[in-house]
Amino acid sequence: MRRPLALAGAALLAVAAAWTALTVLNQSGGTGAAAPSKPPVPATAEITRQDLVDTKTVSGALTYSGERDLAAGAAGTVTWVAAEGAVIRRGRPLIRIDRKPLILMYGKLPLYRTLRSGVSDGPDVDQLERNLKALGYGDDLTVDDHFSYATRQAVKEWQDDVGLSETGEVDAAQVTFLPSAVRVTEAKAAVGGKAGPGRTVLTVSELRRLVHVDLDTGDQAMAKKGAKVSVELPGGEQAAGKISEVGTVAKSQDDGTTIDVDITLTKPPKSKLDQAPVDVELVSERRKNVLSVPVEALLALREGGFGVEVVEGGATRVVEVKVGGFGGSRVEISGAGLAEGMKVGVPAT
């Protein structure tokens, strides 16, 4: 058996063994046919043929994807900062330093140089021009990788509207490029505080919700990219999800080592909370079309291993079995002469 299966079944086997030990010791033989048991078996259950699914529930957190830190591109005093939880879209300020805004624009390429007339052509110019057009500036502007006179005029018009000096040039003190709208996770700069180039002022994230799990490395076989999971969200809301990312680097924790596992939900959750605790049910093993009995039907044999007490009419016999997968409260068994529909002894409820 694979390790997750063995771990899940160990406790169940221990429970089954505890109540059956005396029963087996009183059997006249370890396996094979035996005289009718006295007293009679208190209760029975059927051997069934079915799929068994072994699961494990782990703790996680409902959060947002793509978290990152943002640094200020200018030095000065913070005069305004976006509130935690606020959603900032293209053209809106993230923070103001000396009353000058740092504006969000959309793009994958960071602003690594000052964009102005005379700079060499490049994709960062094209990125700026696309944003100016989207914001309604530059009627005569052609979107390409060339910083033209029309680009400069569009920049000046935009700067005038947002409260920046009309220089016709754009640098990292005025604009930050991110792929899409962001949610402010944490404001790390307070009004009245000091900001400077390279100093983190905000932590932001994407708007997409996900569930994050710090999974014990001993359970990493249960986390396979693309695997379906069930999630219990705050307030008892149930949601389906799929594992979208599995980390490859182990992280040290106080109680061991973990790997990062991210889960994408099939539909947006009702909860708007960030870092809200959730329970995630992972599937560790699926056994298809196997014979199974309730775990409590297992008997601990005196010579080692396990058996079940088959009940036929008024007689019983102990049959040695090989234990396989677990699912819920049932266990896979195989053994000589066992078949679907047979009755086995279980403790009285």
Automatic annotation (TrEMBL):
<dbReference type="Pfam" id="PF01471">
    <property type="entry name" value="PG_binding_1"/>
</dbReference>
<feature type="domain" description="Peptidoglycan binding-like">
    <location>
        <begin position="122"/>
        <end position="177"/>
    </location>
</feature>
<keyword id="KW-0732">Signal</keyword>
<feature type="signal peptide">
    <location>
        <begin position="1"/>
        <end position="20"/>
    </location>
</feature>
<dbReference type="InterPro" id="IPR050465">
    <property type="entry name" value="UPF0194_transport"/>
</dbReference>
<dbReference type="InterPro" id="IPR002477">
    <property type="entry name" value="Peptidoglycan-bd-like"/>
</dbReference>
<protein>
    <submittedName>
        <fullName>Efflux RND transporter periplasmic adaptor subunit</fullName>
    </submittedName>
</protein>
<keyword id="KW-0175">Coiled coil</keyword>
